Amino acid sequence: MKIIAEKDRSFIDKGKIKLYNSFKGTAVAGSLNSLQKVIIQPDGREKMELNNGLHTVLIILSGTLEIKCTHFKDLKLCDAALIIEKDSKPLLLRNRQENEAELLILNISRLNQENNLKKTQLNYQIPLVSNDIERSLKSRENTVLISKIFCQRNGTLDYRQLDREKMLILYVISGEADINGNTLFYNDTAIFETHDDQIILADFKKNTELLIIEIPS
Question: What is the mean pLDDT of the chain?
Answer without folding.
Answer: 76
